[in-house]
């Protein structure tokens, strides 16, 4: 059972890629990209877990009294969340303009750039 | 490519990647393992600098340069969204229509709004002590303001949300982080050095520069999210096709 | 001196915040001057640091100097190659800002400073990535430069092409970045460290390579190769470069894509190169196939383009293939060659984009066929264009020629032939454009493939079509071209580059008879190809096997993502045998 959390991360990443590749709506595609990113949160947090560990916050916890989970991955995940949210915002802004200029958000119908 | 061909290509690539990822999972150390050398060092360093929330210590002290980059990404994406969702030459701005709001919704939103703003500010202020911090609290504050959109209407929201001011606030907060970082080089030993006294453990003023950097990020996060959230409904409610003549 | 490393990142970011904070009140001239000043200041700092980079500079941000060999902080590393990339990126930012002086009409209302501010953020991101010594920190700055690049690419939101190209760029590059992050997660799980050097040591300690190192290797390389536009990760590049505003194209083609290759070089060297990790032969096997494909596909697609910016974009793809071959061969001479090549290419490619921008703003078109003979009066631009093209082919004594010849000698054998052919074909294609557009030679070609993107009816980026070309728009490419000439022609410069690359003396970096001959061969071949194309269109017309190749470049995000996964699999599959035997 000890690989299950990692396998979840792998699964989420692959599902996101599948969604991106087969998407018929660009908003959905941007959502799928966020799914791929969620895989990285799952992986990072799973990597940092310690059996019986609690949050590494010592305002109400005597240092050394309990094991704590790895704070580094939590900080990385926080950075990652902010990065993901902002990338999503920029991409959604682009999708909004695409829908205005092309009159569609279906990637199959975008034909301005090819060859 | 046709859909069929795409699916075949995807199947080939996806199978390969799946095999790689699964194989890698079985080589990872077991879930819940005890070996976290970097994590252990981080906890010790955080306690030595009187910062109760280790994650705040990582974000604003030990790896504060990452947060500098992260803050710049947030700043850049706000600027990028402002540029991408600008009013173009072939568009004009329409006055938003006043909307009727159901009374219970209005009451609820107006009661919750101050509570939510206060909660956000609390989360920012206690960033170095308890779970949360600048980014998290900033997002709460920014979304709380948008309760006014639900409780009153778009025009009421626009009155308390002059986007230009929030943009400037965003930039000022970002520059505050940078200036604090550079002050570390002048007053301390290196850029982003923690040059202030560390204070008493588990109090609001503990952690040296951590609360200051945290506050800068809190302000940046709040302003950034307000501007980001403003740009999208702006497109839906106000900006219309045609030059309006 | 090492204390100044983080300042290199902080200065442009501070400039951007100042521009935005005061942007609502600043007149445009002041905003643009401020932008240039901050960019130039950073460039100066990068050069000063570069001159002091031996022995290497190391800075632990926040003063977290290691105690007992261990630290909790982030390390920045100032070595020749990284600071060199930062310097190139900064100088090109200054050039792009000077080029766009009074240029964009559509600064959003009350946001005069937004374009220079975005450029400064881009510069900060590139500098941060170039000097990062910590894997996660590299990821953060990689994302910073990506996010800014998406917004800059889509800057002309009125254009249907621009927003579509920017979205493809955004989705592919973000997915690549998340692949890198998955790789970082795996490496952190194995080693418990984030500093590049420490991860490398941790992997070595763990012993022989296994599925985890292979997967992490493939994932990290995927993200970097997406940025470096290696086949089959390259599809976003022509779409993005064809639509981005000209000053942005200059930065994208001139340095951002090369930073991807730099990332491959640096991360392989510091993380995966241990004896027990990914053997050099594996990297070579994995990279060389992809990069040969990249060079060939780029060159062929470049030849059969009529949209001039797309043509230049494909030529960038082709040259990236050549750089990656050099990087994959892992020899010090090849490194020196690649460094010189990248320097020369940065100057020349930006000059070519700048000149193409002049065409766009003067004639409202970047289509080779539609512009036939129309630019006869732009004599100065014509001279710049032709000289840039010849130096792109490797004409001595330009920097590209020297770098390419050094590289050709170090890889040897059939790859030398590939180098000569690819540079001749790409330069021949650009030369063909120049002869048709500026001199009106040959007959105006017909309509060609219906599947192709044409460059007709593009909106100029200036408010009105230019009636005369502003001095800045011709001065910038001229200066860049002179710089690129200096790289190869100034005695001792090449040796200094070699010294910065390896830290030791590089005695062999000068023109020899063999190198002159190699440069002249590809130049003459390019001239011959262009002449043939202009005088007789038949023998070099589009063959039937081009149609499927064209169809691959479909503009469809789904296709691009599917190919990206195939690319990752291919990378791992090529590196697999060494691991099984190791």
From TrEMBL, chain A:
Transmembrane segments: 6-22, 29-49, 72-96
Location of the protein in the cell: Membrane
Main localization category: membrane
Membrane topology designation: Multi-pass membrane protein
Family annotation (Pfam families): Oxidored_q2
Keyword list, A-Z: Membrane, Transmembrane, Transmembrane helix
The UniProt record lists the keyword Transmembrane helix: yes
Name of the molecule in the record: Cation:proton antiporter
From TrEMBL, chain B:
Membrane topology: Multi-pass membrane protein
PANTHER family in UniProt: NA(+)/H(+) ANTIPORTER SUBUNIT B, NA(+)_H(+) ANTIPORTER SUBUNIT B
Regions that span the bilayer: 67-85, 105-125, 131-150, 171-192, 212-232
Record-stated family: Belongs to the CPA3 antiporters (TC 2.A.63) subunit B family.
InterPro entries with a match to the protein in the record: CPA3_antiporter_subunitB, MnhB
Keyword Transmembrane helix applies: yes
PROSITE patterns: PROKAR_LIPOPROTEIN
GO CC, one annotated term: plasma membrane
Domain Na+/H+ antiporter MnhB subunit-related protein: 106-220
Subcellular location: Cell membrane
Keyword Secreted: no
UniProt organism field: Streptomyces olivochromogenes
Superkingdom per UniProt: Bacteria
Annotated protein name in UniProt: Cation:proton antiporter
A Pfam family per the record: MnhB
Keyword field: Cell membrane, Membrane, Transmembrane, Transmembrane helix
TrEMBL record, chain C:
Cellular compartments per GO CC: plasma membrane
Domain of life: Bacteria
Protein topology in the membrane: Multi-pass membrane protein
Coiled-coil residues: none
Domain NADH:quinone oxidoreductase/Mrp antiporter transmembrane: 132-421
Cellular compartments annotated: Cell membrane; Membrane
Keyword S-adenosyl-L-methionine: no
Gene Ontology terms: biological process: ATP synthesis coupled electron transport
Assigned protein family: Belongs to the CPA3 antiporters (TC 2.A.63) subunit D family.
Name by which UniProt lists this protein: NADH dehydrogenase
Source organism of the structure: Streptomyces olivochromogenes
């Amino acid at each position: 059972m000890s690989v299950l959390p990692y396998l979840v991360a792998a699964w989420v990443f692959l599902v996101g890629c599948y969604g991106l590749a087969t998407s018929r709506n660009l908003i959905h595609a941007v959502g799928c990209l966020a799914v791929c990113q969620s895989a990285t949160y799952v992986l990072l947090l799973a990597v940092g877990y310690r059996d019986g560990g609690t949050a590494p916050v010592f305002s109400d916890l005597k240092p050394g009294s309990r094991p704590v989970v790895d704070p580094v991955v939590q900080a990385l995940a926080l950075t990652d969340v902010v990065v993901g949210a902002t990338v999503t915002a920029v991409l959604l802004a682009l999708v909004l303009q695409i829908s205005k200029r092309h009159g569609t958000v279906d990637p199959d119908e975008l034909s301005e750039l090819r060859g | 490519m046709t859909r069929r061909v795409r699916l075949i290509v995807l199947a080939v690539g996806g199978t390969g990647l799946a095999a790689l990822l699964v194989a890698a999972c079985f080589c990872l150390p077991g879930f819940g393992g005890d070996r976290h050398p970097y994590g252990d060092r981080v906890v010790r360093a955080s306690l030595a600098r009187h910062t109760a929330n280790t994650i705040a210590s990582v974000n604003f002290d030990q790896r504060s340069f990452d947060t500098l980059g992260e803050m710049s990404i947030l700043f850049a994406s706000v600027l990028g969204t402002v540029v991408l969702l600008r009013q173009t030459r072939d568009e004009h701005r329409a006055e938003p229509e006043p909307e009727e709001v159901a009374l219970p919704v209005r009451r609820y939103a107006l009661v919750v709004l101050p509570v939510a703003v206060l909660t956000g500010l609390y989360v920012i202020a206690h960033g170095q002590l308890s779970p949360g911090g600048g980014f998290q609290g900033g997002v709460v504050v920014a979304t709380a303001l948008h309760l006014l959109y639900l409780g009153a209407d778009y025009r009421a929201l626009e009155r308390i949300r002059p986007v230009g001011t929030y943009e400037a606030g965003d930039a000022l907060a970002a520059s505050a982080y940078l200036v604090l970082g550079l002050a570390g080089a002048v007053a301390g030993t290196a850029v982003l050095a923690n040059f202030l006294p560390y204070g008493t453990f588990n109090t609001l003023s503990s952690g040296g520069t951590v609360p200051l950097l945290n506050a800068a990020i809190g302000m940046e996060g709040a302003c950034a999210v307000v501007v980001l959230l403003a740009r999208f409904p702006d497109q839906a409610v106000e900006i219309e096709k045609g030059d309006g003549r | 001196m090492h204390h100044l490393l983080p300042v290199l990142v902080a200065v442009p970011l501070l400039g951007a915040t100042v521009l935005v904070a005061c942007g609502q009140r600043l007149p445009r001239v002041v905003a643009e001057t401020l932008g240039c000043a901050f960019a130039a200041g950073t460039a100066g700092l990068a050069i000063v640091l570069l001159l002091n980079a031996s022995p290497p500079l190391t800075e632990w941000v926040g003063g977290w100097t290691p105690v007992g060999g261990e630290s909790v902080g982030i390390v920045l590393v100032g070595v020749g190659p990284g600071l060199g990339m930062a310097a190139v990126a900064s100088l090109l930012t200054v050039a792009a800002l000077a080029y766009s002086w009074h240029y964009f009409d559509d600064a959003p209302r009350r946001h005069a400073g937004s374009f220079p501010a975005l450029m400064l953020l881009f510069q900060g991101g590139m500098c941060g990535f170039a000097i990062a010594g910590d894997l996660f920190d590299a990821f953060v700055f990689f994302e910073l430069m990506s996010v800014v690049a998406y917004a800059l690419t889509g800057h002309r939101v009125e254009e249907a092409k621009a927003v579509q190209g920017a979205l493809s760029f955004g989705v592919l590059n973000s997915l690549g970045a998340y692949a890198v992050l998955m790789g970082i997660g795996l490496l952190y799980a194995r080693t418990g460290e984030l500093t590049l050097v420490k991860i490398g040591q941790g992997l070595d300690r763990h012993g022989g390579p296994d599925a985890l190192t292979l997967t992490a290797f493939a994932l990290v390389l995927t993200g970097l190769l997406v940025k470096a536009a290696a086949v089959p990760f390259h599809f976003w590049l022509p779409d993005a470069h064809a639509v981005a505003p000209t000053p942005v194209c200059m930065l994208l083609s001139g340095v951002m894509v090369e930073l991807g290759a730099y990332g491959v070089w640096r991360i392989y060297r510091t993380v995966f190169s241990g004896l027990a990790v990914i053997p050099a032969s594996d990297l070579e096997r994995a990279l060389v196939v992809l990069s040969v494909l990249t060079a060939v596909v780029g060159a062929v697609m470049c030849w059969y383009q009529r949209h001039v910016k797309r043509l230049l974009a494909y030529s960038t793809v082709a040259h990236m293939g050549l750089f990656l071959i050099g990087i994959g061969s892992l020899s010090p001479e090849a490194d020196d060659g690649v460094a010189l090549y990248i320097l020369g290419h940065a100057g020349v490619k930006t000059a070519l984009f700048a000149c193409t921008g002049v065409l766009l703003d003067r004639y409202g078109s970047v289509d080779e066929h539609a512009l036939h003979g129309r630019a006869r009066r732009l004599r100065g631009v014509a001279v710049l264009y032709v000289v840039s093209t010849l130096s792109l082919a490797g004409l001595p004594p330009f920097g590209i020629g020297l770098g390419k010849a050094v590289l050709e000698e170090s890889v040897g054998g059939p790859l030398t032939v590939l180098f000569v052919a690819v540079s001749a074909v790409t330069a021949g294609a650009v030369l063909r454009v120049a002869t048709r557009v500026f001199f009106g030679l040959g007959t105006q070609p017909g309509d060609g493939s219906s599947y192709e993107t044409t460059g007709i009816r593009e909106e100029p980026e200036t408010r009105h079509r230019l009636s005369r070309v502003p001095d800045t728009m011709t001065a910038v490419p001229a200066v860049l071209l002179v710089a690129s000439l200096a790289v190869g022609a100034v005695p001792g410069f090449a040796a200094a580059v070699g010294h910065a690359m390896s830290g030791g003396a590089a005695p062999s970096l000068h023109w020899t008879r063999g190198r002159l001959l190699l440069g002249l061969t590809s130049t003459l071949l390019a001239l011959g190809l262009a002449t043939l194309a202009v005088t007789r269109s038949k023998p070099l017309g589009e063959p039937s096997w081009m149609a499927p190749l064209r169809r691959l470049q479909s503009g469809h995000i789904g296709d691009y993502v599917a190919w990206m996964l195939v690319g990752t699999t291919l990378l791992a599959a090529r590196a697999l045998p060494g691991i099984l035997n190791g």
